[in-house]
Structure formats: C-alpha cells, structure tokens
Amino acid sequence: MDNFTKDDNFSFAYACPNDVVCLLEVTVVIAVSFLVVTSNITSLVVLVSTPSFRNGHGYLLMSLSVADLLVGGVAVLSIYPSADFQDTAYTWPYGDTVCLIAAYAGQLALINSGLALLALSIERYIAVAHPLKYASLVTKKTVSIVITVCWIVSASVFITILLGILPHSYAPQFYICQSVYAMTSLLSLVPTFAAVLPCFIIMLVTSAIVGRKLKESARRRAAMAPAIPESSNSSGGTAQNSIKLYRTVRIMMIAICFHLCPFLIVRFLTIFHEESVPQVISFAAYWWMISNSLVNTVIYYIKNTKYRDRVHELAAKLVPSCFRDLEGRLPCTCWCSRSRNTLPYSCGSSGGSGRPNVELIVVKTEELQDTVSPFRKI
C-alpha cells in the first residue's frame, strides 16, 4: 500500500495460526459487526420514536447508542481484512486516510461509550438517592450540555491522531487501524486508567449509597413511614421503576468492566512482557471488548419492559404479517401478486390502492407435487 503508516515493532504475532482459526475469526468479526450495528440502529429508532424516552435518561441512552453504533461502523471495516487470510501486516485495503479516520473514530467511540455509561450511573443515582431533586438537576438542557461537553472534549483529545501527532497503524492482530501510542506505549495506560478508574469508583460509591438508602427505606416502610414517595417523578415512573433502572445501569457498568478487563491485561502483557502475545489471545480480547457495544442494548432490552415492548411494537409493523399470523405448524411461503401475476416480492400489506395483493400459500408437504393452494388472504 502506498503512503501506509506502519509499525514493525508490535510485540504481537501478526497472523492467525491456521486457516481454521482464520475462518473462525472472520465469523466473529462479521457476526459482532453486524449485531452491533443492527442492535444500535434499532435502539436509536426505539429511543427517538418513543415519547417517554424524550427525557434526560433517554438522551443519555441515545448518546450511548450513537457511540456504540460508531464502534460498530469502525468494526465493519475489519471484515475485508479479516477475510484476506494473508500472513502479512499490510492487508489494509482502504488506504492511509481511512486508516487514520478509523483510528480516530474508534478511540472516540469507545471513550464516549464509557462516558455515557458513567453519566447514566450518576443520573440513576440522583433518581434513587435524591428523587425530590431529580427534576431540577436532571433536565433536558443539563443532560444535553453534559453530552455535548463529553463529545467535544474527547474529540479534542484524540484530534492528535488526525493531526499526525500520534502515529497510527494497521493492527493485523485486531484487523483494524489504531493509534500506535494506544497499543504500545506505557504512557497510554494513563488515559486508559483515567477513563476506567472513575467508572469503578463511581459504581462502587453509588452502589453503596443507594444500598444504604434502600435499607433505610425498607426499615421506614416497615414502620409505616415511607422514606421515598411512590409518586411519579420526572424520569417517567415511580420510585420502584427508578430503582429498577438503576439496577439495569449498574449491570451495564459491570458488563463494560467485564468486557474491558481482558483487553487491559493484554495491553499490560504487550508493554511489559518481552515475548509476543499470541494473535488469537489479542484478537479475542479486542473483539470481546467490542462486543460490549452489543451487550449494552441486550441488557436494556431484557431489563426494561417499556423498551422491550416498543421493540416488539416496531417489529410487528416491519415484519411481514404472514410471518406473524401463521396458524398451526404448516410451513408457508409468502408471495405478492400484482394484477394477478404472482411474483416472489417481499411481503407487505394488502390494504390500500396501488399496493400488491399478498397471498399466503401453504405448501402441503405430505403431497409429492408442485402445486400450491391459497390458504387465506391477509
């Protein structure tokens, strides 16, 4: 590659050890990239289209989804290099400019994903520990300012990559471009711990304070003197709902720490250990960290009923009705016909003028013949 920035001093084994491992890594790259992108696009659609999420909590979730979507977008660039199967460090096909942008965007997205979770943890702490102050502290304007500051500050910090102050290179063990400083320098651990340690500390402190508050509330309720009113607050639910949301965010904080720790260990070994780190271990640690951008959405989907119901509602509108209204266990296939000419169009609604007529065709599997008969019209 012309004008490609490279570094030959990484303490990594560049190539996957054999074709089977290479194929497994390609599968992982494609699966993680696709799931991260689709899940966060879905999350953004749900959050933007649901009025009850248009509050401070919802804005922070949108910021998290945007950051995770950017992580997925950078991860998509790894599909072609991972499928190249070449035992070389120079298989980046997109040129040095895209490599530079990928290195910058990857750092920006990962740090903002962590910052969004950090802000969510603080927001939920206020909702549970200080519910009467929540409406005045966590406003749309305040949250918007916090989100904007986080993105601007992180973008300014990592602008050194775009300016060429910090060199960038294609990292074949990850199949993506990164800052060389971020991978091999001892000083790179300083901003890493500056971003990670506050998450640990805030998670521990807020968990301890909220736990104490909940115990006090339970004792007072037992004495028929509620400590936290059960009336609705500005976050869109009762105090019990606020507690559930706090526990959801706490699980998300634990998940990001769980996904980040293996990669930090690999970083330590890379910097302090004289021998090279096996490519399989480096790959697994990095893509395990990237998969956290999918896990955030999955956790919120599982733990939040309102979010889950909205996903199902949107899915019901998008998924062809023939797949939602099947009766029995007979296999079926969907056909759309225009003016009596049956063609395999994608299924849609049959109502309204100008729309294709949709027929549900039931294939009688017990008969060895090619004929099909209409079962019903949707």
TrEMBL record:
Its main location: membrane. The keyword Transmembrane helix applies. GO terms for cellular component: plasma membrane. Pfam families: 7tm_1. One of its GO terms (molecular function) is G protein-coupled receptor activity. Residues 39-300 form the G-protein coupled receptors family 1 profile domain. It is a multi-pass membrane protein. It is found in: Cell membrane. SUPFAM superfamilies: Family A G protein-coupled receptor-like. The chain crosses the membrane at residues 26-47, 59-80, 100-122, 143-166, 186-211, 251-272, 284-302. Keywords: Cell membrane, G-protein coupled receptor, Membrane, Receptor, Transducer, Transmembrane, Transmembrane helix. InterPro entries: GPCR_Rhodpsn, GPCR_Rhodpsn_7TM, TAAR. This is Adenosine receptor A3-like. It comes from Acanthaster planci (Crown-of-thorns starfish). The lineage of its organism: Eukaryota, Metazoa, Echinodermata, Eleutherozoa, Asterozoa.
